[in-house]
Amino acid sequence: AKPIVAIVGRPNVGKSTLFNRIAGSRIAIVEDKPGVTRDRIYKDAVWLDKEFTLVDTGGIEFRDDKGSMSDLILQQARLAIEEAEVILFVVDARSGLTATDEEVARMLRNTKKPVILVANKVEDFTGNMDVYDFYRLGLGDPIMVSASHGLNVGDLLDEVVKHL
Ligand code: GDP
Ligand code: MG
């Protein structure tokens, strides 16, 4: 089996957009509003001759109403820690850091697996984005990308395949 690269993060940060961008397809549903129930989506991808299976974990955040939203996101992160070789933790540079981001980060800091912090929705690289907050997550330097515009996604993938 190919190594798994899992995309985790709270709803609406752009996980599915990033998935589609990397997988070169539009199989993950991109929603303006969070909360649509979908399954986990897997797609094989390749970068610099390295093959991996990409997972969009966003789909089941709202599968049932037993847990709170952040419980379900944390569950996704836990699953990613178990099954993935590399974890992409996506945050939204436009909305800034949230309490849920901090909870997910706390969990991800406890794994020895490589976690790449991805600050998405950066279309303007002139330094106006308030991404310095994200250093507080204790997961290293965020890689700034725009999933929807394809900006810096190649740099992100270079980083991913270093760990494969
Ligand atoms: P998910 O819930 O984390 O899977 O997020 P989606 O991929 O469904 O995207 C949520 C919203 O953010 C949609 O309206 C996307 O069009 C938007 N979005 C995703 N990536 C970007 C980006 O790089 N820049 C901007 N400006 N918007 C984005
Ligand atoms: Mg999604």
Automatic annotation (TrEMBL):
Residue ranges of domain EngA-type G in the record = 3-164
Task: Name the residues that bind GTP 1.
Answer: 9-16, 56-60, 120-123
- Subunit comment for this entry? Associates with the 50S ribosomal subunit.
Role according to the record: GTPase that plays an essential role in the late steps of ribosome biogenesis.
Protein family:
Belongs to the TRAFAC class TrmE-Era-EngA-EngB-Septin-like GTPase superfamily. EngA (Der) GTPase family.
Could you tell me what this protein is called? GTPase Der
Which gene is transcribed and translated to give this protein? der
Covered residues, full protein: 2 to 165 of 440
